[in-house]
Design goal:
Layout: H1 2-14, E1 20-24, H2 34-41, H3 44-53, H4 58-64, H5 74-88, E2 93-98, E3 106-110, E4 113-117, E5 130-131, E6 137-140, E7 145-156, E8 163-172, H6 179-183, H7 187-190, H8 192-199, H9 211-239, E9 253-258, H10 265-277, H11 281-291, E10 292-295, E11 306-308, H12 309-315, H13 317-336, H14 341-344, E12 350-351, E13 354-356, H15 357-364, E14 367-370, H16 373-383, H17 385-390, E15 395-397, H18 404-410, H19 413-423, H20 445-470, E16 479-484, H21 493-509, E17 518-523, H22 531-548, E18 557-562, H23 567-576, E19 579-582, H24 594-600, E20 604-607, H25 613-620, E21 626-627, H26 632-638, H27 644-650, H28 652-659, H29 675-682, H30 695-712, H31 716-728, H32 735-747
Parallel strand pairs: 1-2, 1-9, 2-8, 9-10, 10-14, 14-15, 16-17, 16-19, 17-18, 19-20, 20-21
Antiparallel strand pairs: 3-4, 5-7, 6-7, 7-8, 11-13, 12-13
Length: 756
């Protein structure tokens, strides 16, 4: 840390008076820091060799470090990649988030069920954070006030001496322990203030099935938004005492809101300016219009946060007043344009006693971006079409990316060395577009054989790791078909496992079937209150139990659900994958970043025309991947007429696998454990049609695509050629490119030449 701290202080001094981007995100899924920081310092191999020389196993030291439990899925991993890329590109970006004590949860699998436990990642201390008590802030709720204590984490650029800052806020009480209450036998009350304060940053995304959980979740969002805004304003006042005109605030600050979670920063910013700095409301609003930009990550309505007014009132009455003032201003503007009350309704920030957070961000912000070409188009055509008609100039696309340092240079050293050897330079680590130069080796047999060997080695490593961690022996020479991501119906892990059931039945009928051995690997967490997603995990594990213990098929078919999927597990899974499962319903996945990590490591995409899959197919060619399923337009055409029972009735394969959900084949207890999934597929419920995510519509297309995979893998050279073409065309999906797009198009910040 000594070397890092010296560079860190130097960067803070150099960047003091420059315009900065401030990235507010509820998640920063950074994973382990030791290996990645050594990579970025350029001393990884040197340190590893030195320790090995004195008999210390470097890998055991790496494995001792817990993953920082600061996120869950793609949104948080994207934020971490952006921090890495901003530092690597000499951009002044400052991250603000939450220092969760327990993260989302640590997942274990017991009797096939997901069991949630606290993820005590701080139990052995935190070597990568510095507590800064001098910058602590007071955050006031209606019923309590807490201290927001910042912990700063260094974010290192790649071999360039740049260190940016990720500031994470931890909620703490003003009074740790009330002695008089304890002395009066009121033991619980003696520590109640401490517990209530710490609850705010204890868990990522607390279960909000009940009202208390919703209040806690909004408190969490307001907590880190308020602390961050107070921090920015206080630093501005200290840094520019001679120029305290807040109309100049935008010259030094731009705030990127990573999805709807930090949008409470908008009314909080206005509150701080109006209530604490004497700025008129209209002036504060005008300043806010120049500094806030909004990234949308979903088209799912349930994920576009809407909070009941009474909950916002309980968290921050003053912010609710400000939100209502903003809403009144919005309505007034539209009335002046001649719109009726009914025509104004979709734009309202406060409607039906709910606060619509996305409307607040779009009305105030100067930029709204999606995260893949198709996603951004859907925002304009559908999700926010009303806003696009009103403010088309603020909408733009920023296709997501991943950092090659974490996901190739660190996670796949052998492939990284191969690339440097073939390109004759390491410059691709700074400019991933240079991977395009690998295409000259697409017909070089020696290069293709070497690439196959590298993949084979990574598969052996993963097979050993899965045996150690999961107790399941898998064949490293089988096809590794991997789907690892958050468990959700739209991501369609149940389509994948239904196809596995189809294969199992087919092999049971004909054990001598010409079928290339395949291992299907799943991983991911279901939200604690998401019953159906947890049922999908149970189904995968029950199918795995039956298949893996059936001697008739288990030399050709294996199923694994990896426990507690996280960044460090991903670092082993992505390099070993042959097939990248990206099978979401077309139009539902905003972008995806797992698809990019797989591609960068030479996996072939099996996917729908959804999210960034489309751009992957465009750049690497559909002939080098496997596309299936209905398109967005095709699904729109059948949206009102779709009847999954027709597919169930007419296709015996579909009927067979769907019926297996309730036949008892994968449920020893005969308790119809998977009846909920069965009903969702073919029985309309609660006024909604069945099969909301078109599994049965896409099943046959998916089945045929899997047959293509099984046939294609038998030609080793042809498969290696496809791998190489995917790697060579993955350069566009670097988060370095994405963050430069943000800097140029939205933030208007330049690279810090002094740090070059």
């Amino acid at each position: 840390m000594g070397l890092i701290n010296e560079e860190w202080r130097d960067c803070k001094r150099k960047n003091k008076n420059q315009r900065k981007a401030y990235y507010l995100s509820a998640e920063f899924l950074i994973g382990r820091s030791l290996g990645n920081n050594l990579i970025n310092l350029g001393i990884y191999d040197e340190v590893k060799e030195l320790l090995n020389e004195i008999g210390i196993d470097f890998e055991s030291i790496e494995n001792y470090e817990d993953d920082a439990a600061l996120g869950n899925g793609g949104l948080g991993r994207l934020a971490a990649c952006f921090m890495d890329s901003a530092a690597s590109q000499n951009l002044n970006m400052y991250g603000y988030g939450v220092r969760y004590r327990e993260g989302i949860f640590k997942q274990s699998i017991e009797n096939g069920f997901q069991v949630e436990e606290g993820d005590s990642w701080l139990k052995d201390g935190d070597a990568w954070s510095i507590r800064v008590d001098s910058d602590a802030k007071i955050v006031k709720f209606r019923d309590q006030q807490v201290k927001a204590v910042p912990f700063d984490m260094p974010v290192l650029g790649f071999e360039n001496g740049v260190v940016n800052t990720l500031r994470l806020w931890q909620s703490e009480p003003f009074e740790e322990f009330n002695f008089s209450k304890f002395n009066n036998y009121q033991y619980d009350e003696a520590v109640s203030e401490k517990n209530r304060a710490e609850d705010i940053t204890r868990v990522l995304y607390p279960n909000d099935m009940q009202r208390a959980g919703k209040v806690l979740r909004l408190k969490q969002q307001y907590f880190f938004s308020s602390a961050s805004i107070q921090d920015l304003v206080e630093k501005y006042k200290k840094s520019y005492p001679e120029d305290l005109k807040f109309e100049n605030f935008h010259k030094y600050h731009v705030i990127q809101l990573n999805d709807t979670h930090p949008i409470m920063a908008i009314p909080e910013f206005i509150r701080v300016l109006v209530d604490e700095n004497g700025i008129f409301f209209e002036d504060a609003l005008a300043i806010a219009n120049k500094i806030f930009a909004f990234t949308n990550h979903t088209v799912l309505q349930e994920a576009l946060e809407k909070w009941n007014k009474d909950i916002v009132l309980e968290v921050s009455p003053r912010c609710l007043e400000i939100i209502e003032q903003i809403n009144d201003k919005l309505v007034g503007e539209f009335k002046k344009k001649g719109l009726s009350e009914e025509a104004i309704d979709p734009y309202r920030i406060v409607r039906f006693d709910q606060v619509h957070m996305a409307n607040l961000a779009i009305y105030i912000g100067f930029s709204v971006n999606g995260v893949a070409e198709i996603h951004s188009q859907i925002l304009k055509d559908d999700t926010f079409s009303h806003w696009y008609k009103y403010r088309p100039e603020i909408f733009n696309n920023k296709t997501n990316g991943i950092t090659p340092r974490r996901w190739l240079v660190y996670a796949n050293r052998e492939l990284s060395d191969f690339i440097s050897e073939k390109l004759g330079t390491d410059n691709w680590k700074y400019d991933l577009k240079l991977l395009k130069g690998l295409e000259k080796y697409v017909d070089d047999e020696a290069s293709l054989d070497r690439l196959w060997e590298i993949k084979a080695n990574k598969k052996k490593d993963l097979a050993k790791y899965i045996l150690d961690q999961e107790g399941i022996k898998i064949n490293p020479e089988s096809i590794f078909d991997i789907q690892v991501k958050r468990i959700h119906e739209y991501k369609r892990q149940h389509l994948n496992i239904l196809h596995v059931i189809y294969l199992y039945h087919k092999l049971k009928k004909n054990p001598d079937l010409d079928f290339y051995p395949t291992t299907f690997i799943f991983g991911g967490k279901a939200a604690p209150g998401y019953f159906r997603a947890k049922g999908m995990i149970k189904l995968i594990n029950e199918v795995a139990r039956v298949v893996n213990n059936d001697r008739d098929v288990n030399d050709k078919l294996k199923v694994v659900f990896v426990e507690n999927y996280r960044v460090s597990y991903g670092e082993k899974l992505f390099p070993a994958a042959d097939i990248s499962e990206q099978i979401s319903t077309a139009g539902k996945e905003a972008s995806g970043t797992g698809n990019m990590k797989f591609m960068l490591n030479g996996a072939l995409t099996l996917g729908t025309l959804d999210g960034a899959n489309i751009e992957i197919f465009e750049r690497a060619g559909e002939e080098n991947n496997f596309r299936f399923g209905a398109t967005v337009d095709e699904l729109k055409e059948i949206a009102t007429s779709y009847n999954p029972v027709e597919f169930y009735s007419k296709d015996q394969n579909i009927k067979d696998v769907v019926d297996s959900l309730v036949s008892g084949e994968f449920d020893d207890n005969g308790s119809y454990m998977f009846l909920d999934i069965y009903n969702e597929l073919i029985n309309p419920q609660n006024g909604q049609r069945a099969d909301q995510y078109y599994l049965l519509k896409d099943f046959d297309s998916y089945r045929r695509a899997q047959e293509e995979v099984n046939d294609a893998y038998r030609d080793k050279r042809a498969w290696s050629r496809k791998m190489l073409i995917n790697i060579a065309n993955s350069g566009f999906f670097s988060s370095d490119r994405t963050i430069e797009n943000y800097a140029d198009d939205i933030w208007k910040i330049d690279k810090n030449e002094e740090n070059k």
